[in-house]
Amino acid sequence: MTEIETKNLILKPFIKENLNDAISLFQDKDFMAFSANGTLNTEDASKRFFEILEHYKKNGFGKFAIISKSTNKIIGYCGFEICSFDGKNEAELGFRLIKSERGKGYVVEAATASIEDMKNRNFKHVIAFSEEDNTPAHNLLKKLGFSKTFKSNFMNMDVVFFEMIF
Q: Does the pLDDT at position 1 exceed 70?
């Protein structure tokens, strides 16, 4: 995976040296607010981080660390991971941003670049899902060009699924 630069952000694959930053993010209740697992303990946060690294190796793409150009700090993540649902493997968009950086358009900026990356990898469609009551995420997905497809239960959460066809 290569680095992607946008107006305000640098998106780059996580590296092992980012482990402590990732653990801090995964233990932040605001950052993990809409996670099926909520905040993670150190062991589970570390495990999740290494799953992200392994996904890069296995698939050639994954969640990017979102780095603010103004602070040079990791402020979240955005990108795609393979998600199994109803017996199918789908490229699923996921994003999280620290609370202090929300409302600045950074997720739209990062997700737009991530979607372009998937188009360039010849994906024909991608999916996203969010908890049923996460209206800000639903609005953001619609703004990105996703269409609502159906509601279901995933990982013990009532969720709304979205799809984008290229």
A: no
